[in-house]
Amino acid sequence: MNGVSKIAWPENLTILSIYDNELLNVTIHPRPVKGLLIIENRQSASIYAVNIFNALGKLVLEGKENFNKIDVSQLASGLLFLKLETAQGILTKKVIKE
Fold this sequence. Notes:
Number of strands: 7
Order of helices and strands: EEEEEEE
CATH class: Mainly Beta
């Protein structure tokens, strides 16, 4: 195969990127978090979805409603990635769960 290898991707794979979109003025606290994660949306951007992934990229929590407060008390301790989807774009933030 002349040095080119093929990679098979699962259908439900989500690629996470870590960057701060300056258009989205969102604050996440407390950091680190034990129970409730508070999302302050300072631009009143409509948040369509909130998903939390573990360090392996596995979806561990999917926010259905009330995007201002997310209960993460049932999640395992460690590094988490919070992915916010808004009309202005997608924002991914790192969060430590104690």
